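Protein in question reproduced for absentees:

***
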Amino acid sequence: MYPYLNIGFMHLGTFGLLLWLSAVAATVAMHKNFSRNGVDADALNIVATVVVAGVIGAKVWHELEDVRELEFALRMIGQPGWHHPGQVALGFLGWFRAGFAWFGGMTASIVALMLQGHWAHFKGPQWKSIDDPGPVLGARLGAMRMLDLAAPATALGYGIGRIGCLLAGDGDYGVNTTLPWGVHMMHGADEYNRALVLPTPATALVQPTPIYELIFSLVVFWLLWRLGKRAKPVGLLTGVYLALSGVGRFLVEFVRINPRLYFHNTMSNAQVAALTSVIVGLIVIAASIGAGVRWSPQTAAESKI
């Protein structure tokens, strides 16, 4: 665990730094995808909007998993009273910095991407730059095309962001292990993050599951990027991403410490959500192949997708 980088008087949170790095990597991937597909859109603005929506969605999802804990946390935040706004604000920021759920972030990000896809366009016939798109706008991009464009960037950003979770020690490590690449939580980690459940014993080596997720995400990114080079039905990449990301999360849960709450205590909440992602992904793949809507601006002008 390295929750902070201490540089003089500055204490930089590694989770925030890795979140920023994941956004940078996603922006680069989105920009290159826009360029090779002739899309008139600003990747930086889109990723920034998605990050904000994703963080809020991830926090809301996590807190709604335990409403009683949320009520307790809100009471503690408001305990100083509204006549001490500074203390209340610091309490809120301290609460907000820990505890996020991936599927909540994904849901909010999908909504944000679909909205921006509705507003974006392909490059018009006299397009010069984002600031000078010409007198005639190209065909509207559409929500599903935006999701397809974002699929590789999402896989890449997710993998990088997971390393931030590992460094911050937010509790998403794995079960005890004797493998040579096992890691351990630093002494006093539960005082830094009171939501953290330490291994038993506290000095035990545990599975570095975020590293497994990084490796899996890089493979998914590579596959989606390669698939995106060829003509494909609209929605196919989105379906492939949902299916593969669900498979990855389902498998990694077998070596994570999340409680088993469903199907006679055999599956975690994340595994149920992952299976849902796989099923939805397969449905999207089948629907996209069946519809057969292609990616060209000409078909986009005729399509409502």
